Every structure is written in structure tokens, then in C-alpha cells.
Amino acid sequence: MEKLLIINPGSTSTKIAVYEDETQLFLENIPHSTEELKKFVNIADQYGFRKALILSIIEKQGFTMKSLTGIVARGGALPPIKSGAYRVNEDMVWQLKNAPDHEHASNLGALIAHGIATENGIPAFIYDGVTVDEMPPLLKLTGFPELERRGTGHNLNARAIARRYAKEHGKEYRDCTVIVAHMGGGVSVSLHHRGIIIDMINDDDGSFTPERAGALPIAHFVHMIFSGGYDEKSIMKKIKTQGGLTAHLGMNDTRKVEEKISAGDERAKMLYEAMALNVAKNIAKEFPVVNGQVEAILLTGGIAHSEMFTGMIKERLRYLAAPVLVYAGENEMESLALGGLRVLRGEETAKDYVKVEK
User: Fold this and answer.
1) Helix (H) or strand (E) holding 164
2) Contact at 8 Å (CB) between 188 and 154?
3) Distance CA 170, CA 183 (A)
4) Which of 53, 45, 66, 34 is closest to 111 using CA atoms?
5) How far apart are CA 151 and CA 130, in angstroms?
6) Distance from C-alpha of 162 to C-alpha of 242, rounded to nearest angstrom
């Protein structure tokens, strides 16, 4: 029997859970106020603060660290990595502290896991980190030799849903070819083929979303940037958190958007339809990559709870041979736990991370 601590740090909260084999014993989302976090200059500086909170919650729930057999954390912004499990080692800790791909709260996951695991003599892993990138060179090329497409996106939940589909249909994941659209604050569309994600349209390149601007007409965008009034920080904020439905309607909650539509708001209706159409277009773009040989389209993420939104996508994709199936919700904690279990049971081998000095 395995007992795993799961750690998933976000920008304003830290989710933790304990699993006994496949059973979730408890789940808690620890919120962090702006006041609490503003005293920390860098993400890594929050290590002690968040670790102490996690240990306190675990103790209140009646668990001891000695009862754990392992820890699995959300992988941080490492340089591009392969899918699956990695051991949290000294090289990974160095990377996330000194030379991460970018600053992100998920960087704390492996750091905290390493601290707790070292103190208690148990293994720590990350699984399907945020920078998994297994796209072949053919699909990375762009019109600028200096810029390549990247396979980063919602790899963790997307692969978990593809695995779930395979299991439900009596198949191995490596034998399935499916497209997964993860739809939340950001939207990514990933193509799963022969056990890897061979293509990814992430939330920078795809549909606009409740918060993201998505793909933009680049010539007009460049002109807008150089017209003045923008610096890198402000334009990235506009792209990442102030775009999409937030920019148009002043809201990022799709339930409230649907309320406006039900009340007869035609502009809200058109924007919602446009967002669904964009998701459908990006799903359809993946078919030529595998010569149309896609067996299913899987819709997941928080927005997949909406029958209105998934219905719009299904309507647009009716002409394709592949069925559209809905797996609503975020499944990150369970996905991390199941990944860790596969490693501890010997069903999967964890990789050893080697640092990359910039």
C-alpha cells in the first residue's frame, strides 16, 4: 500500500492532498493573500512560508510524515523535458532556484517536495511537468529560424484524460491517437500519438479564452506595441490575464457569460460562439498531422462542464469522423497521484534530471 503527499503550488494558493493508493484521503486548497505574498521578492523566497503551511495542514489532518511512502509535486518551469516522471534531485533543485525557464509558482513544488522528502527519507517526484515538450522538429518550424514552436501546455491533465480514454476502451495509451482540448482560463489543444504529445496548440497560439488573448494578427499586433504606451510587462499582462472574455466583457467566469446570454445579450452570445468556433478550428487543424487518423476528440477542463459550450464545439465538428467525448473538470491532483503510483509500483521508471546551465 502506497501513501502519497501531492503538492501543487499556484500563484495565489497551494493545493495539497494525500492519496492511499488510488483513494484520495483528503484535499485542501490553501489560499495565499496578496498581503502575505508581497513581502517575497522572488518565487523561491516563498519556500519556507508555503512549506510550513503544508506541514501544519498535514499535522492537523492527523497524518505523520513517516507514514508517507512518497511525494509527487507539480513540475515547475524547467528547461524542456520529456513526459512522465522525474526524480526530484539536487540538479532539479539547483535549476529551479538558479536558472528556471521562467518564474512561476509551480517551481516551488519540487523544492518543497525535496525538502520534506529529504527530511523523512522518502522519494520525491514530479510528473508531466509544465515544460514537457516532445514535438518532433517538423512541427516546431516557423518562418523565423530564431523562433520555434513549443510543446508546453496542459500536458498533465491532457495526458491523464487520454490515458483514461484508453483504459475505458480497453487499449494502451501508446496505441491511441486522440486530440485533447483542455479548456479553462487558458485553452490548449494537444495531439496524442504513439504514447507522446506530438503537437500542441497552446494558449499563446490558439483560441482566445476567458483570460488569454490567444493568436493575434501579428502585423497589427507589432504595430500596436511600437505605437507606444506598452512595455514587456504590461503587454504580457494584456496577453495572459487581461485578454479574451475579460477584455471584451470584463469577466472571466463563463457561467456569468452564459447568464448574460440567457438574458438576451447578443454581444456575449457572439463572443462565446467565436471562442467555441476557435477551439473547434484548432482541433480540426490537428487532423492533417496524422493524415486524419484520429479516433476521438476529448474535451476537458473547467469549461467542459458547460453543455452550451461543448455543444457549440460538437456542432462545428460533426463533419469529422471522430466522436467528441466530454471529460469535464481539472484532474491535476489525481493525475499526479496516479503517475507517482505507477513509479512506486514499478510500472514506470522515473528519469534522472540533469541541470542545464544557461
Assistant:
1) helix 155-168
2) yes
3) 26
4) 45
5) 10
6) 30
> What CA–CA distances, in Å, run from 144 to 140, 149, 308?
11, 10, 39
Residue 34 has pLDDT above 80, yes or no: no
pLDDT tens digits for range 145-155: 999 998 888 88
Compute the distance between CA of residue 123 and CA of residue 136 in angstroms, rounded to an integer. 32
C-alpha cell at 207: 483560441
The answer, yes or no, to whether residue 13 has pLDDT greater than 90, is no
Question: For residue 77, what is the DSSP state?
Answer: S
Q: What residues contact 146, with CB distance under 8 A and at least 6 apart?
A: none
Q: Which domains does the chain have, with CATH numbers?
A: 3-132+333-352 (3.30.420.40), 137-322 (3.30.420.40)
| Crossing angle of helices 254-262 and 307-316, rounded to 10° | 80
DSSP letter for each residue of 18-41: EEETTEEEEEEEEE--HHHHTT-S
Which regions of the chain does DSSP assign to beta strands (E)? 3-9, 13-20, 23-31, 70-74, 85-87, 124-127, 177-183, 187-193, 196-201, 296-301, 324-328, 351-352
Q: Are strands 3-9 and 85-87 parallel, antiparallel or unpaired?
A: unpaired
Q: Check if the beta carbon of residue 340 is closer than 8 Å to that of residue 313.
A: no
pTM of the model: 0.88
Cell of 333: 491532483
- Provide the grid cell at 285: 487543424
What's the CA gap between 342 and 85, in Å, rounded?
A: 9
pLDDT 10s digits, 261-300:
999 999 999 999 999 999 999 999 999 999 999 999 999 9
C-alpha cell at position 52: 510550513
DSSP 353: P
Cell of 318: 460533426
